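Duplicate of #3305? Posting structure anyway:
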C-alpha cells in the first residue's frame, strides 16, 4: 500500500486536510504514512488525511456498510484518518472539503443546488452546493450531517490537563462522540434573558471563557469513552428566542489531533446542546477558522460553511512504511 505522488491541500474553516483520489482502490495509506503527511514540520501538515475512493475498497468496512452505500446510490467514500493515523467515523468539515475536491476532479456537478452523496463510517451524507456566503469564499456547502443523540445534560465532568478547573459536560453523538461544555455567556447578555438551564450549568463551572482556556494538554472527561471523545467549549454570545436564532463561540480539542481551528461534527454537537438549553434551533457559531451555520431539529443537524482548495502538491518522497 502507498499514497500517490500528487496530493491536494484543502481546508474548511481552518480544519485542513491532505486529500487524494483513489478510484482503483489500491492507495490505502498506512498509519505511519498518515502521521508523516500530517506532520507540520517533516510532512505536508494537516489535521487529517482523506482518501476519496469507492466503498468496496475501504478495508475496514463490513459488507453491510458497503451494501448500505449501494442502496443509496453512493459511489464515493470519504476514508478519513486522524493526524495520529487512527480511523475516524466522520468529519463534518472534511465532507465539505472533499466535495469541493470531487467537483474539481470532475466527479460530481458544480452548479448551485447540486448534491453529492458521500459514504462515511457514520453513514451516507448528502452535501449540497450553495451560493457564496458573504466574506466566506467561493465554495459553500450545506451538509446534512444527520441524526444526533444526546445524553443527560451536565452528566460528565470535564477537567484536568492544562485547564486548571472543571465544568459539567454533555455527551452528544454525531456518528462520533463529543463532550460539550458551556463555560461562559457574553457580558452583554442580561441574566434575566438566560434560561434556567443555562444559569444552572454556569453555576457549576469554574472554567474561564473559551478564549482564555489552555488547550495545550488534552481535557479529561469523566466518565469518558475508552476510545476518547472530542471536547467542545462554548460561550453563548446572543439569543433571540422570538426569531429562533442565536450566536455562540466554540473552541475544540479533537481526539487524535489536538486543538483545531474548527470541527464540523463538534459544531453540530454544540448546536444540539444549545438547542436543548434554550429551545433555539438556528445557530451561527464562530470558531478559530471562521463562522458557520448550524441548524438543528428533533432528528437531524445541518451544517453550512465554506471550503477551499489550497494547493496541488507533488511529493518528492513517499515513505514506504
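Output from current build:
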Amino acid at each position: 500500500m502507498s499514497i500517490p505522488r500528487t496530493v491536494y491541500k484543502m481546508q474548511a474553516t481552518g480544519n485542513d486536510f491532505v486529500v487524494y483520489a483513489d478510484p482503483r482502490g489500491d492507495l490505502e495509506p498506512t498509519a505511519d504514512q498518515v502521521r508523516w503527511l500530517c506532520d507540520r514540520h517533516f510532512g505536508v501538515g494537516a489535521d487529517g488525511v482523506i482518501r476519496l475512493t469507492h466503498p468496496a475498497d475501504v478495508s475496514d468496512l463490513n459488507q453491510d456498510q458497503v451494501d448500505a452505500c449501494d442502496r443509496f446510490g453512493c459511489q464515493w467514500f470519504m476514508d478519513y484518518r486522524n493526524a495520529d493515523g487512527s480511523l475516524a467515523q466522520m468529519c463534518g468539515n472534511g465532507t465539505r472539503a472533499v466535495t469541493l475536491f470531487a467537483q474539481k476532479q470532475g466527479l460530481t456537478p458544480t452548479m448551485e443546488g447540486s448534491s453529492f452523496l458521500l459514504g462515511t463510517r457514520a453513514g451516507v451524507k448528502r452535501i449540497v452546493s450553495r451560493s457564496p456566503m458573504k466574506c466566506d469564499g467561493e465554495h459553500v456547502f450545506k451538509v446534512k450531517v444527520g441524526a444526533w443523540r444526546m445524553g443527560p445534560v451536565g452528566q460528565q465532568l470535564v477537567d484536568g490537563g492544562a485547564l486548571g478547573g472543571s465544568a459539567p459536560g454533555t455527551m452528544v453523538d454525531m456518528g462520533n462522540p463529543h463532550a460539550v461544555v458551556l463555560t461562559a455567556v457574553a457580558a452583554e447578555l442580561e441574566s434575566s434573558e438566560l434560561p434556567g438551564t443555562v444559569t444552572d450549568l454556569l453555576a457549576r463551572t469554574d472554567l474561564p471563557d473559551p478564549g482564555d482556556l489552555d488547550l495545550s494538554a488534552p481535557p479529561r472527561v469523566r466518565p469518558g469513552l475508552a476510545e476518547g471523545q472530542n471536547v467542545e467549549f462554548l460561550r453563548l454570545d446572543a439569543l433571540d428566542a422570538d426569531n429562533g436564532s442565536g450566536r455562540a463561540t466554540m473552541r475544540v480539542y479533537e481526539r487524535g489531533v489536538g486543538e483545531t481551528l474548527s470541527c464540523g461534527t463538534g459544531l453540530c454537537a454544540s448546536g444540539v446542546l444549545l438547542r436543548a438549553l434554550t429551545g433555539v434551533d438556528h445557530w451561527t457559531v464562530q470558531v478559530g477558522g471562521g463562522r458557520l451555520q448550524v441548524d438543528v431539529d428533533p432528528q437531524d443537524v445541518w451544517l453550512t460553511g465554506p471550503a477551499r482548495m489550497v494547493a496541488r502538491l507533488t511529493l518528492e518522497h513517499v515513505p514506504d512504511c
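Confirmed duplicate; merging threads. The chain has a mean pLDDT of 94. The domain at 149-298 is CATH 3.10.310.10 (Diaminopimelate Epimerase; Chain A, domain 1).
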